[in-house]
Amino acid sequence: MTDPLIARAEEAARRLAPLAGRTERQGVDRPALDALARAGLHGVLGPEAVTGRAPSAPVYRRVAEVLSGADGTTWFVWFQHHPVVKMLAASANQELAGRWLPGLCAGTTQAGVAFSHLRREQVAMPATRLDGGWRLSGVAPWCTGWGLLDLVLVGATTADDEVLFALVPLAEGDAMAHGPPLHLSAMGGTRTFPLHLDGYVVADDDVVLVAPRAQWGVADAANGANVQPSTFGIALAALDELAALDPPAAAALSSRVEGVRERAYELIDLVPAAEAIDERLRLRAEALALGVTATAALVTAVGGRAVTGEHPAQRWAREATFHLVFAQTADVRAATLAHLGA
Ligand SMILES: Cc1cc2nc3c(=O)[nH]c(=O)nc-3n(C[C@H](O)[C@H](O)[C@H](O)COP(=O)(O)OP(=O)(O)OC[C@H]3O[C@@H](n4cnc5c(N)ncnc54)[C@H](O)[C@@H]3O)c2cc1C
Q: Whose alpha carbon is nearest atom 38 of ligand 1?
């Protein structure tokens, strides 16, 4: 497909790809994110009333594929912005949406998330009711973009077993701090830290959503059953390189990736989100395993050079492994293990 935003993502990718090894080691910087914002890539999923163009899932997917294949580190920080835009656009808190959506869609305000702990059984971030707001204390184990982002969408759990999402400044302060460095084997340049809150007070005005945890969990699990476009982005980038080294292996793997991709996107576009969950999970598991296989094939074809610092093959192989756990739900974990064990 063609679209001006895809063309701009491809242009950005040509700039980012040669520097991706260095970006992973030295870390993403704000100017790199600002350049993506100027290219219009922060508002792809924003409401038409704000961006002037209808949000487009297919355009977003292709942009995500292109960026993740070029520079996984920068892609991952950019990726965290979009759940914030989507959730705010759907929020009943119109004042909050009106306050932040223009800047978020323009990318002059950059945001990330810290809510994946809500998928765990144990409560990591309890929220206690106060007059006019909530007090949050706990540790969100993952928060990407420290020092880069303006806002973070924090997930917490109320005493009534509801999930609460609050959009607040991401900044070291009396009640907000980051935990120790994580020494990641992939995504090391994404400035990912645990987020510590200690009596952090959130005003009701900054609350995006409060919903029963079970209800949110069903929607989150349905959403999480779909393949992330970045899984394909990395596999396709690796197969592109493999095509020059071993055309038959590249062709065989490309046709498997294309088959899974076509069906996965067809399900997202044509079938209601709550349906065909088992098939979506099977496809996600297959795509994750194909990502690992495709990047391993490239490492094999390149030889020893593949595991030297600057070569993208080793980075893509590590990123494909990261995708096994990225946005993982209990169902995705089970489907992936069933596929790997079959
Ligand atoms: C580098 C990096 C950066 C990240 N950045 C962010 C970020 O910015 N914001 C954010 O919100 N998240 C972030 N994440 C989290 C990520 O998207 C995944 O949700 C997370 O990796 C899943 O693993 P976990 O350790 O957090 O959860 P886990 O505790 O492993 O749980 C994952 C899921 O599996 C289930 N589960 C756990 N154990 C079992 C079991 N034995 N059997 C069956 N089911 C089980 C849980 O209930 C849950 O649904 C990041 C992760 C990484 C690795």
A: 330
